[in-house]
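hey team, just a heads up i'm posting the complex here instead of the shared drive bc the drive is being weird again. everything in one block, sequence lines first with there labels, then the predicted structure for the whole assembly after. its two chains so it's a bit long, scroll down
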Amino acid sequence: MKKALAYFRVSLTDALEYRGDIILYVLSGVALPVTSLLLWNAVSFSESSSPLSPPELVRYYIFLLFVGTWVSSWTSYFLSRDIRLGKISPWLVKPAPFLLYQASNNISEKMLKTVYLTPIAFLLSFIFKFTWPSLSPSKWLLFGLTFILAAVIFFLIDICLGLLAFWLDDSSAVREFYSILNLIFSGRLLPLYTLPLIIQNISFFLPFRYTLSLPLEIILDKLSSMQLIQGLIIQIIFLIISFCLYKFLWSRGVRKYSASGH
Amino acid sequence: MTRLLKLYLHFLKLAWMRSLEYRVNFMTWMVVDTGWSFLDMIFFSALINFTQVIGTWNRGQALVVIGVFRLLVIPVWGWMFSSFSKIPRLISEGKLDLLLGKPVDNQFLVSVQDFSFSILPSLVTGSVFTVYGLYLLRIVPSFWQILLFLWLLIPSTLLMYSLYFGSVALSLYFDRLDNIYHIFPTLYDVGKYPAGIYPVFLQRIFTTVLPLSLMIIVPAESLFSSPSITNLLLFHSSALILFFLSRRLWFQGLRRYSSASS
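-- predicted structure starts here --
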């Protein structure tokens, strides 16, 4: 715990030093949901039969701002770069797990991004006339739980993508391909309810839905109790799979790894 | 001018050689680029499923705009992103003087550092989308319309270059803005939607001060409607004015730059 807090303080200090970068990330992250919401507004004003009502769409995208921020990870880029340049050698001899530092760094930056995001979200809520979802306490609890699990699953998968650098000279194309699939099947680009049925059905078997769409579907109150339990169980399964995959890739990768001059 | 052109062709040759150094990675990135095209198509299809019009565009017009968007992705992501992504780091690490010391216009040098050839599938997908959109509109553009369209791609590219380069030049005015080069590609996406979906004050901004809505729409609309002379003159003037402004911003910023004894 002490090590995690120490890493957290260091990462937060680092992030606070160059606040401009964080603000730019927040603004970039806001652009897509806001543009999508404006588009859906325009669609709903024409003759349309959207599966989500305008208030539901606003709720979806406003919550997406926060859920999307917390369910994000940039570790794979830096991890693959460090593996390629031989810079993970110090981590192999440190008394704290490598994952602990990455998680602390991830959480500290997200906390800072949330601070910058909150006034933007308030402004957008006012402009788009956001209405708070009326959910039961148990559904709010479930939302919180699926939200945390979504963030952890996404983070672990991102780490796994970064670890591919042990075997690939350049894994950027693989990460980019993952981003495209994530945009389609996670509901980040469009709510899954608006996509063709075949895409919705495929999404049930892929981890992407459980890294973003599931918590948002709970917010929309579109899931039955059985679907909620099903979703939670599948999320736990993906969490176990992604953690085991991380352990496997890390142990095999470190055996293969070599660096000079460290 | 001829000297600069020869130099650019030389840089392109080097970029091509770099691309082919890791062939599997190059092919994978071409697949990724095709994936982005399909993502645009999925987004468009999902929206058009629920309405006959998006803003003021019907299905065919929206498809033509997406096609032109994909064609213009080539200079934005293939040329500008590849070159401009290096600039903030060169500035923050004080290594820009390696380029400043050369006997060539330094704006030209920083602008042509790299080119990503894996973006070329967008030439195919963009053309297919455009032609299919025109087919849905039952329009066959005349020879002069096609000529005008091809000509308008030039000021459109100049406009995008000016806005993108201007945003990256801001790195000279701040301590560290390593992620500034991500801002324009995010804003570039704004250009593929009808200006009518945005609030009135944003419409005014996107068609005058920051003509993001004009970059793609003006060349696209030339294929299915007759643009007014006034609008064409305004379009060309804004491209030239913004080019000179961005150049001025760059050279003013260079006065603040100090190297790190490289």
